[in-house]
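The instructor's notes for this session suggest beginning with a concrete chain rather than abstract definitions. Hand out the sequence below and ask the class to guess, before any prediction is shown, which regions might be ordered.
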Amino acid sequence: MSDRQSRRDREILLIVDIQNDFCPGGALAVPRGDEIVPMVNRLAGQFAHVALTQDWHPPGHLSFASAHPGKQPFETIVAPYGPQVLWPDHCVQDTAGAAFHPELHVPHAELVLRKGFVPTIDSYSAFRENDRRTPTGLASYLRERGFERITVVGIATDFCVLFSALDAREAGFEVTVETATCRGIDVDGSLARALASMREAGVRLV
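After discussion, reveal the predicted structure:
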C-alpha cells in the first residue's frame, strides 16, 4: 500500500447536519445553508471515507420551545445538564425537515450517525450529548476503523460543527474545519467566538 493510500485510509470527512430544516425554507434555517451543498459534494469526492450526522428529534423534545409553555424560540432555560437554548421544532424524526438536503449526493458515505434522539437531552456534537458526559460512540468507531484525521463541514458552524470539532480534538484526533463549506447562525457574535474557540483547541481552520 502506498503512503498516499494509507494516509487516505486514516482520514475521514464528517458532514454535519445538511438537512432540510437547516436550509432556507426550513424550520430552523441557517442563512445560505443550501449554498454549501455542491461544495460538500465535490469535497466528498476527494475522500475515500465519509460519515454523515443527522439531527433526529422525537416530537416534544426538551430543546423545543413548544415543549415549555410560555417560552419562545431562542430563549434559554436551565436543563438538568445546564443551559439549553430553546429552538423551533425542527428535524423531527421521519419528517421531510429531518431528511438530508435533496441535492446532497454522497453515495459512498459509510456511516449515518443520528443525534438528539434522547427526548431529554439535546445533542450538538457528533461525539457527545449536551450533558457533556454521554458518548455517541463515534470516537470509538473512528478509532476502531483506524482513522486519525477528521475534516468537518456542514451546519451550523457555531453550534454542531463547533462542538463536533472541539470534541474530536479532545478525543485525540487531528481536526480540520473547512470554513467555506460551513454556514453559521451567528447569534450575538457566536460565529466569531466559535472560530476563536476552535483555533484555541488546535483545530485547523482552512
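Then share the key points. Helices lie at 3-8, 36-44, 138-145, 157-170, 190-200. The chain has one domain: 3-58+97-188.
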